[in-house]
Amino acid sequence: MEIKLLRLITGEDVLAEIVDAGDIAYQIRNPLIVFIRPTETGVPSVGLSQWIPYSADKEFTIKNDRVVVESNPAEDLRKQYDRVYGSGIIMPSVKLTA
User: Fold this and answer.
1) pTM here?
2) Rounded CA gap, 14 and 26, in Å?
3) Which of 4, 6, 50, 82 has the fewest Cβ atoms within 10 angstroms?
């Protein structure tokens, strides 16, 4: 499962599984919008929400000319995505030795 962060020309940051990155369009599955939300402490945190919340569809097509940047998500962001759409199992980043 290849998860990418796409910055669209609208300014939206979409985190999604890339089904196909073709010459004309991206086919994505289970997209989430990435947003900054305030906290009680005043330190902003990252939130995830459904990209198109009232759609029954899970796969979408985005034309390539609507994508400004494609990148790999930060590890913490990827773990948040996996909590929503993955197995829910988050692997530790520290290797344990005996």
Assistant:
1) 0.82
2) 12
3) 50
- What is the tens place of the pLDDT at every residue in 21-68? 999 999 999 999 999 988 888 888 899 999 999 999 999 999 999 999
CA distance 76 to 46: 10
Transcribe 56-75 into DSSP letters. Answer: --SEEEEEGGGEEEEEPPPH
Contact between 90 and 82 under an 8 Å Cβ cutoff? The reply is yes
The CATH number fitting domain 3-85, selected from 3.30.360.10, 1.20.210.10, 2.30.30.100, 3.40.1190.20: 2.30.30.100
**C-alpha 25: how far from chain center:** 17
Question: Is the distance from CB of 83 to CB of 90 less than 8 angstroms?
Answer: yes
CB-based contacts of 14, cutoff 8 Å, min separation 6 = 5, 6, 7, 8, 28, 31, 32, 33, 34, 51, 62
